[in-house]
Design brief:
It is built from twelve helices and eleven strands. By secondary structure, the protein is α/β, with parallel strands linked by helices.
Length: 379
């Protein structure tokens, strides 16, 4: 029996969709017990798969790892922790929510315009758009169709990606499970009904029993970047003791997207794991390179990372020593192949130093490593 209890269970949300008020709390749309729930109550202990490798930037999984998985997931770091093309971005929209229609037209227009601009700037990156409710999905689709009708490059982008496994999509929160794209745009829909007004604490499917799990699905769809378009600020969402967990999760994620306040994938401040790593870092420092030990976010840390002298915001090289991290792997396959494959998929250039070679002739190994780094700076 395989599954994730923090993702979406079966739902009856659309059984009465024709009669559903877009601004109605979703409490009555009770989530059904799944086979997975039954299995978890019977079979003990459950074994967890801990490696997360979809996200090419650690910040995309850092929020869910903290709030849903108790920090147990192994999330591999990115060599460019502060690059604008990756991670989570918050864009404030001066929009107003119309409860009767269940839409936020200014926000829909902002999302559609940003999608067209994205397609022109990043033709080789796939895109998905997710709205919190169905009414907003429909209005975003209409706005995108209207803009595509007069923008040939955007229409060409859409047609080209339709021939791949990752066509452009616009979906609402209930329908996005299982999808993944390079970049995900999120329209949070809700906001004040008049400029400067108060936000009513009614968030449709987020208010359901499993609203927090729906949000977890949404927040983990992107491989490279999430852009949150919202007419709300953090202070506009006010959880109470009786609120469903999804309301608090929404507030925390808005805070995370706007402030990026979570510890992830830069310099951790951790000391090197071994004297061997300290020796290597010291010798590289004497060669004029800036070296940071233990770069990572959760469960896995690269022993040493060399900063790119041309761009201090990214790492030029990751150095793996056969120290504590190496020997902690439970299999040779994980230790020698899988970790390296995942890191290289995320853009890392890796270099391995064997302790026997180092202590046999440190000067020779430093010279080899120094030449390798200088070659990388010429690329």
């Amino acid at each position: 029996m395989v599954g994730d209890p923090q993702q979406l269970p079966p739902t009856a949300f659309f059984e009465r969709i024709d009669a559903f008020d877009a601004d109605e709390d979703a409490d009555e749309y009770v989530d059904n017990e799944s086979i997975l729930d039954v299995a978890l109550s019977v079979f003990h202990p459950a074994r967890e798969l801990r490696w997360h490798y979809r996200s090419r930037h650690e910040s995309l999984m850092a929020f869910s790892n903290k709030h849903f998985y108790d920090g147990k997931l192994v999330v591999f770091p990115s060599p460019a922790p502060n690059h604008d093309d990756y991670g989570v971005e918050y864009r404030k929209v001066e929009g107003q929510y119309t409860p009767k229609a269940g839409v936020n037209l200014p926000e829909a227009q902002a999302v559609a315009e940003a999608a067209v601009a994205f397609m022109a700037e990043y033709p080789n990156r796939s895109l998905g758009v997710v709205t919190i409710n169905q009414a907003q999905r429909e209005i975003v689709t209409e706005e995108m169709d209207r803009l595509f009708a007069r923008d040939r490059s955007a229409e060409a982008y859409r047609r080209r990606w339709e021939e791949t496994l990752e066509p452009v999509f616009v979906k609402n929160l209930e329908n996005v499970q299982g999808d993944e794209r390079d970049v995900i745009f999120i329209s949070t829909v809700y906001g004040p009904e008049q400029p400067g007004g108060r936000v009513a604490q009614r968030f449709g499917p987020i208010n359901s029993v499993a609203g927090h799990r729906r949000l977890n699905v949404l927040f983990t769809r992107a491989k490279e970047k999430v852009v949150v378009f919202s007419s709300m600020q953090v202070s506009d969402v006010i959880p109470t003791e009786t609120s469903r967990p999804g309301v608090a999760i929404l507030k925390h994620y808005l805070d995370y997207a706007s402030s990026r306040r979570l510890d992830f994938g830069t310099d951790t401040g951790r000391e090197p794991d071994s004297d061997f790593e300290m020796f290597v870092a010291d010798r590289l420092g004497r060669e004029g390179f800036e070296v940071v030990p233990q770069v990572g976010v959760a469960g896995y840390f690269i022993d040493l990372a060399v900063k790119d002298p041309r761009d201090p915001q990214r790492y030029l090289l990751g150095i793996e020593c056969d120290g504590a991290s190496y020997h902690s792997a439970k299999s040779a396959r994980a230790r020698d192949r899988l970790r390296q494959e995942i890191l290289e998929q995320k853009g890392w250039q890796l270099y391995r130093i064997w302790s026997t070679d180092w202590f046999g002739s440190p000067d020779r190994e430093v010279a080899k490593l120094s030449r390798f780094i200088h070659e990388l700076t010429k690329v």
